[in-house]
UniProtKB/TrEMBL annotation:
Species this chain originates from: Glycine soja (Wild soybean)
Similarity-based family: Belongs to the FHY3/FAR1 family.
Name the UniProt record assigns to this protein: Protein FAR1-RELATED SEQUENCE
GO molecular function, one term: zinc ion binding
Annotated Gene Ontology cellular component terms: nucleus
A GO biological process held by the record: regulation of DNA-templated transcription
Length: 178
């Protein structure tokens, strides 16, 4: 992810600077590039805070709940999963322990790619063996499938990381001020 982030930044920067410009021009152009990024961020924040989301999945409660907490960009990614996952994934079996329930989730007609989702009913925590949540910060198809299977009407807090929240900046700027 770090490499792809650097490459994305280089590609954006290349729109503003080239090899032939002198150092003072570089600084000026770099400043323009940063201003452009700031503008894009403000635009994205505005987009997230205003406007009404049109619900597209058949799982309105879960989709509405996600639209209230996620930024618009992340919400769109989550909604794609919400529409796709329950149609292509199946919850095959459940193994209960005293604290957790471990579900086997697999793709439709593909018994080779089983993932195990661990769910703790007392804390509403989910962990999947694919570790997508831990690496990317968004719940995977397996967890989304299980949310639907278990009739969740709201997205659990443990599946919403602070930096994908709409209110993230307000919360952190408030903490910094204190
Ligand atoms: Zn998974």
């Amino acid at each position: 992810m770090t490499t792809s982030r650097c490459e994305a930044f280089h590609s954006h920067l290349a729109k503003f600077v080239n090899l032939r410009i002198c150092f003072t021009d570089f600084v000026e152009q770099f400043q323009r590039c940063l201003s452009y990024f700031c503008f894009r961020e403000i635009e994205a924040d505005f987009d997230s805070d205003y406007g009404v989301v049109t619900l597209q999945s058949g799982l309105h409660s879960l989709e509405r709940s996600a639209s209230k907490v996620f930024t618009k960009t992340i919400f769109h990614m989550f909604r794609c999963m919400l529409i796709r996952a329950p149609t292509v994934m199946r919850v095959r079996e459940c193994h209960e322990t005293s604290l957790y329930s471990i579900y086997s989730v697999l793709k439709y007609c593909d018994c080779g790619s089983i993932c195990h989702v661990c769910y703790c009913p007392s804390t509403f925590e989910f962990k999947c063996s694919c570790l997508r949540m831990e690496s990317f910060g968004l719940p995977c198809d397996h967890i989304v499938t299980l949310l639907v299977e278990l009739d969740f009407s709201e997205i659990p807090k443990c599946l919403v990381l602070d930096w994908w929240k709409k209110k993230c900046k307000k919360v952190y700027s408030w903490k910094i001020c204190r």
